[in-house]
Amino acid sequence: MAEAHQAVAFQFTVTPDGIDLRLSHEALKQICLSGLHSWKKKFIRFKCVIVVVGVMSSTYLKVDPSLGMIARINRTLDTTNCMTSQTKKVVSGVLFSTGLWVALIVTMRYSLKVLLSYHGWMFAEHGKMSRATKIWMSMVKIFSGRKPMLYSFQTSLPRLPVPAVEDTVSRYLESVRPLMKDGDFQRMTALAQDFAVNLGPKLQWYLKLKSWWATNYVSDWWEEYIYLRGRGPLMVNSNYYAMVYITPTHIQAARAGNTIHAILLYRRKLDREEIKPIRLLGSTVPLCSAQWERLFNTARIPGEETGDTDPRTQEGWGKLCHISVTERLSTQPGSVTQSLARLVSHSEPLPAHGAALVPWAKCRQDYFGRGKNKQSLDAVEKAAFFVTLDDTEQGYRQEDPEASLDGYAKSLLHGKCFDRWFDKSITFIVFKNGKMGINAEHSWADAPIVGHLWEYVMATDCFQLGYTEDGHCKGDPNPSIPCPTRLQWDIPECQEVIETSLNSANLLANDVDIYSFPFDAFGKGMIKKCRTSPDAFIQLALQLAHYKDMGKFCLTYEASMTRLFREGRTETVRSCTTESCNFVLAMVDPSQTVEHRLRLFKVASEKHQHLYRLAMTGAGIDRHLFCLYVVSRYLAMDSPFLKEVLSEPWRLSTSQTPQQQVELFDLERNPEYVSSGGGFGPVADDGYGVSYIIVGENFIHFHVSSKLSSPETDSHRFGRHLKQAMADIIALFRLTVNSKK
C-alpha cells in the first residue's frame, strides 16, 4: 500500500564523529534502543490468586500439594529468626504457589512459542492435512487455553527470523529477471554477488544481534524511517480510506450518533481486551495483536525530522465538540444524535483559508504552542478519534454509478483538503445524506486493524442499534446533554502559510484519478472451482491487465502480513514473476492453445502462492534488504547494490482488504450488506495503486488510483482492462459467469 510509496528512494543521514569504531557504536546504539523499546512492552500479569488460595487451603487441611517443597522453604526461613511460626507457614505457602504459577506460565508460553514457530502447515497442499499437522494443531489448542483475550498470545509469538543473505540475494535476482535486459541483469548479478560475499555478512551480524535483543528486528525501523521520517504530505501519499455501500438512514446526525456509539462500544471491548484475537487455520494459529494498542487517542505529532505517534493522555473524541467516553456510553445513541444535530444547525461555514491547518511542524511550534490554540489542538490530538460532518452528499447513484463511486472514494481520501485531520489515527466521516467512511493514518497500524473496527461498526450500527421507521436513532435523547462547544482558534499570523499549504494540497488532490467499481460477474466461489487461490487469480489478472494497459511488465508490490510473529507488520510479495510473465505472454498470443495457457496459469498461480507463504513466514526479501540498508547507513558504508534496490519504483502497488468477521454478516439474508473495502492513492507518478476486497462468494470490489498528470496512466482504462482480464482467465476454465449486474 502506501508504504511502497515511502520505500522508494528511501535514505537517511547519520553523521557520527570519529572513526569506524564510533560508526559501529552508532549502529549498536540504535539496536540497543530498539531492544529497550521492546522490553518496555514486556511484562507478566500474574493472576495467581487462585493458585495461592488453593495451596494455602490445602495446607490448612493437612494436605501437602508441594511434595515437601513448602516444608523445605519453611526450614530455610527458620534461619532468619524474624518471623513467627504462623507467618513462616503463610510465607512458605505463598512463595511456593507463586513459584508454581510462574513455572506453569513460563512452561505454557515457551511450549506454545515452540509450537507456533512451526509453519510447515502453510506449505501443505490445500485440502490435505497430515496426521502430524493434526496432532500439532491439537497441542496448540491445548496450550492456547479456552477463552484467550486479545493480548493473550503476545508473549508466546515467535520472533521474526532473519533470512540468510544468500537466500535474500538469490530471490531478489529471481524477482527482477523478467524485468531486466540481459546486460542490466548481468550487471545487477555482479553487484548482488559482491554484496553477498563482502558487505552483506557484516551488516547481517548487526541484524542478527538486533533480532536476539529486540522483539522484532524490522518493525520499529520500518515505522521510523518509512513513515515518521517521510517528509511528503500524508494526504493521498500515505493515508488510506474505507467506505461502505449500505445507508440505513439518510439523516446525517442519526447515522453519526449510532456509529459513534458503536465505535465507543468497540473501544470499551478493546480496553477490556474482550476482542477475540485473530486466528488462522480453523481458529488455531494466532496473529499478533500489538497494532490494536494505538487505535484510539493517537495522532502524529510533527517534527522537523520525525514525529511521535502515541500521545495518549485523554479520553474523548473531537471535531468542534469534545465528549468524554464515559459520559457518552452511559446514554443512548439518540443523545449523541441530539448533540450532533445542534452542532450542524448552529455551525457556521468556515472559510477555506481558515480551516487548512497544514504544514505543520514549524507552524505548529510557532503558532499552536500556547493559549487557546494549544487548548484546541490538544482537544483534537488527544481525542479518541476525529469526526467530520461533511456537508456534501456522496455514495452510489444508479443514474451515474461510475462518477458517484469515484467521487465518494476521492472525498474519503482527501475531502476538501482542510476538513479531515490526517494526523489522527482515524477520521470518521459522515456525509450529509447519511453515507459514511473512514480516513486512516498509516504509521500506527495496517489496514486489517481498521477493517476489523469497521466491520464491527457496520454490524452494530445496522443490526444491533438500528433506526426507527423515520430514520432516527432508537431510544429517547437526554435533554440535559450540554450543547457542543466550538473550539477556538487564533490564526491571523499564519494566514500566508495556510494559503500556501492549501494550494499545494489542492494540486495534489486534483491530480488523483480514482476508479472505484464493483465486480459481480463472479467471485471467489467460481474462482475456487478453478482449484486456485482467489488472491493468486486476481494477481495474475492484474498482471494481464497491466500488460494490456502498458504493453510491458513492471515491478509489482503486493502487501502481505507478518503477524504470525510478534509485532509483525507487512512484507512484500513481488507478484511479477517469470512464471506470471510467461502466462501473460501466452494470453496475448493468439496462436497459443487453451491447454497451454491453463498449464502456465497453474504454474504461475502456484508460484505466487509459494511467494506469499514465504513472505508470511518471515522469508520475504524486501524487509530484510531494507534493514540491511539501515545498518549500512549507520555504519556509513556505501552499498551500490542496496542503493539501487531501494530506489526501484513500484509502478503497480496492490493490496487485498481481508474480511475478518464474516459471522457478523449473513449475505444470503442481507445481500446489500456487502463491504466495498477501501483504497489508497497512487504510489508512483507513472503507476497504479490497486486495492480489492473479496466479499462472499460472488462479489469483488476494486479501487484503482493513478495520477491525472501522467500521460501513461488512466485509472478507468486500467479498470476496463482488469475486468476483461478477469473474464479472459475464467473463460479458460469454461465456466459460466453471472449475467446479473
From TrEMBL:
Residues 160-312, 359-724 form the Choline/carnitine acyltransferase domain. It holds the Pfam family Carn_acyltransf. It is found in: Membrane. GO terms for cellular component: membrane; mitochondrion. Keywords: Acyltransferase, Fatty acid metabolism, Lipid metabolism, Membrane, Transferase, Transmembrane, Transmembrane helix. The chain crosses the membrane at residues 90-112. It is a multi-pass membrane protein. InterPro entries: Carn_acyl_trans, CAT-like_dom_sf, Cho/carn_acyl_trans, Cho/carn_acyl_trans_2, CPT_N. Residues 1-47 form the Carnitine O-palmitoyltransferase N-terminal domain. Its main location: membrane. The active site is at residue 442. Signal peptide: none annotated. GO terms for biological process: carnitine metabolic process; fatty acid beta-oxidation. GO terms for molecular function: carnitine O-palmitoyltransferase activity. This is Carnitine palmitoyltransferase 1A. It comes from Spermophilus dauricus (Daurian ground squirrel).
